[in-house]
Amino acid sequence: MKIRADLAVYQGSTEGYIKELKRNHGVTFTSVQLSYGDNPYFDNRNSVGQIYNSWKVLGQVGAYHFYLGDPVPEAKHFLARVNQHKLDKDTELMLDVEGNLSGNVVAQINTFLDILYNAGFHNLAVYYSETFGLNNNYKLLHHHPKIWVASYSHKPNCYFDVWQYTQSAQTSSGGLDLSYDYSKDTTLAPDTYVKTTKKGKLFKVIADGGLAVSRDVALKHHRTVYFGKNSQVYGSVVPYGKATRVKTKLGYISGNTKWVKLI
Predict the structure, then answer these.
(1) Are 21 and 3 in contact (CB under 8 A)?
(2) Of 76, 88, 125, 210, which sits most exposed with the smallest number of CB within 10 A?
(3) Rounded CA separation 148/65 (Å)
(4) What is the chain's mean pLDDT, rounded?
(5) How far is CA 96 from the centre of its chain?
(6) Is the pLDDT reported for residue 188 higher than 50?
(7) Percent of the chain beyond pLDDT 90?
(8) Are 129 and 210 contained in the same domain?
């Protein structure tokens, strides 16, 4: 288990501050807020120093966006900020979902995640409250994001990979959010894909959250159905750029060997 800190404009950005977090709180990973909605006025003006010094002191860093309810322009603005900071495609990108949001929030989250995923960022996470986690099925979220749950009086009663257990850890620049990270290392191994085989082969879904089924080979238009973990399905391998897909009777699923294997 590791300890994470998430940094916004209210936290420090110097090398000394990041060393303080490591020394006093055991922090090994920081997630830095880059954007808030889609208005550049609310961008985190301390993010450059926070990211640079997190890399320098800790050797790793992630980035996050505070969501206000409009997924397409907000995702595009967040991606622009990610690219401004020259973050590579292995960087963990997190969507912070909280507050009073209207409409189908799960669908909104999926739209946001799809935009990040299609831009080549596959190390994704979603942050929300325990209440949201109890009332929504994390398995319906696209692309298997890490689930980051806030709960300050007890361990969350919903599924989580990362538990934000406090928002009041004391530092030289005021309070700080800290989280216990139960997930695997955030450094991603290179993606590999099932190879082209003869039609009619049997595949097994090994992804913990199952696999979404899409109408199209680009995996942009998901159906409401999905294959749960350990499901076995017949299909054929279809090349798609450097990747592959598995074409089934219900639609396309990813051919990534982290999520599906040929039996």
Answers:
(1) no
(2) 88
(3) 13
(4) 92
(5) 10
(6) no
(7) 77
(8) no
Indicate whether 192 belongs to any domain.
no
- The encoded tokens of residue 112 equal 């946001």
Q: Which H or E element spans position 205?
A: strand 201-205
Tens of pLDDT, residue by residue over 46-62, are 999 999 999 999 999 99
Asked if residues 146 and 169 have their Cβ atoms less than 8 Å apart, the reply is no
Distance CA 11, CA 67 (A): 19
The C-alpha atoms of residue 108 and residue 146 are separated, in whole angstroms, by 17
User: Whole-model pTM?
Assistant: 0.74
Q: Give the pair of three-digit tokens for residue 216.
A: 């199209």
- Tally of structural domains, the chain: 2
CA separation for the pair 6, 32 (Å, rounded): 6
CATH code where residue 24 lies: 3.20.20.80
Lowest mean pLDDT, pick from 37-41, 94-98, 171-175: 171-175
